[in-house]
Amino acid sequence: MTKVITYGTFDLLHNGHLRLLERAKKLGDYLIVGVTSEEYDKFRGKINVNQSLIERIEAVKATGLADEIIIEWYEGQKIDDIKRFGIDIFTVGSDWQGKFDYLQEFCQVVYLPRTKGISSSQIRTTSNSLKLGIVGSSTTIAKFITESSYVNGVRVAGVCTTNLMNLPDQLKNLDCVTTDYATLVRKVDAVYLASGPADHYQQIKYALNHQKPVLCELPLTLDVKQNQELLALASAKGVVLDFAIKTAYTTAYNRLIFMLKSGIIGKIVHIDATCTTAALTDFGATQPVNQDWNNLCAWGTKAMLPIFQLLGTNYREKKIITWLTDRQQHYDAYTKINFLYRNAEATLKVGHGVKAAGQLMIVGTEGYVYVPEPWWETEYFEVHYANANTKKFFYGLDGEGIRYEILSFVKAIKNKTANTYLDLGTVNAITKVCGDFDAGLDTVELTVK
Ligand code: C2G
């Protein structure tokens, strides 16, 4: 009996897949089909898969061509399978020509001509290509355009920015490059706001009233009442209002939060979250690098995430100490906030010009978690147990998490689903702290000059 094996994602099963399976079947007497797990697909950069593993397995089963279906979980598994199942022939489409020659050591390798003119990503893209408009003057615009190119079904079609002068080349040939927000909203299907927090309320309201979904960098606004008004408007209009904070969308960060919530280090008593970034030119600089965003809004939102997601938002009190570059600008080179809970304490430190170790430390009654700098884009963390054992975890991250944030937004628009990465309590708590800081509440102001 000649045993054949082939592998694939088989997302949105189409004629190309079917023809491959039919020809693979004809190569022998028994066909095993390996369907890739979601984790493995993400690991190898396929982030746009629409269907779940179960749905894809069911689709392959329904073809009646597979004598056996297995799951491909990890890089290199093919060698193990070929040996375990006594495979005679490995086959795959010719788009992989040469990539699996190394398997010739274990079995015959056959590349079958790929069916032209059809692919899962084509199906995903033609069915809903969303024109995205970006608002903001920060460097995130260029990054965001690069990252959106990894997401099927969306393309950056326009930008609204104050400085049209030194635009990166990627922006110059977009459908719409303007300083006028209303013009941008008219020309696109959805909007990503990286504009200053003070502008968010009006901009979100305008977009929602024009039935345009919004992905907005946190803080959503600087006033919780405005958040609530906008979220109510979004639901009344049936238009998605989503939250951009790349850390929340990364695999390693999410797994860490789930593990901690499951109690792996017992009860959490202390969290220390530090985010600091490159220095300003010098403390004499009166023009902060980006006037729209103060340091707490730019970095504190990320540092607040683990604090509010693990300890909740009902802290008893907070104390803000901020070191300003100068009083007029009210720009904070370094800000430290202490949150006191009933049985826990959390500290965040954010610096833009004042450098500190950008790590995340979470202390529990049965151990602690250490996430090295830059923890807000982490792929790696360590769990140190009270018995001195240590476990290390690694989850690959491409593009700092921005592409997963865009993917979540596009899926929310397509499937009208709520955001599963961020709860409204956390979104509002972040707004409250940024708003209080802006109003000078609970704050002691120092200067660095
Ligand atoms: N295929 C094809 N013609 C198409 C599209 C896909 O012949 N128009 C073939 C691919 O070459 C592959 C199989 O169908 O052999 C499944 O394709 P995908 O689901 O895109 O999976 P892929 O990522 O190519 O998986 O490690 C090898 C991979 O698992 C192959």
Short description:
The chain has helices at 15-26, 38-43, 53-62, 77-85, 120-127, 140-148, 169-172, 181-187, 197-209, 224-237, 251-261, 295-311, 402-415, 424-439; strands at 3-8, 30-36, 68-72, 89-93, 108-112, 130-135, 154-160, 176-178, 190-193, 214-217, 241-244, 268-277, 317-326, 331-340, 345-352, 360-364, 367-371, 380-385, 390-394, 443-447. The protein is an alpha/beta fold and 449 residues long.
Task: Give a structural overview.
The chain is α/β, with parallel strands linked by helices. It folds into three domains: about 120 residues, Rossmann fold, CATH 3.40.50; about 130 residues, Rossmann fold (3-Layer(aba) Sandwich), CATH 3.40.50; about 180 residues, Dihydrodipicolinate Reductase, domain 2. The strands form three sheets. A nine-stranded mixed sheet has the order 19-18-17-16-12-15-14-13-20, covered by helices on one side. Strands 8-7-6-9-10-11 form a six-stranded parallel sheet, with helices on both faces. Strands 3-2-1-4-5 form a five-stranded parallel sheet, with helices on both faces. Helix 6 crosses helix 13. The chain starts with a strand and ends with a strand. About 0% of the residues have low confidence. [cytidine-5'-phosphate] glycerylphosphoric acid ester (C2G) binds next to strand 1, helix 1 and strand 4.
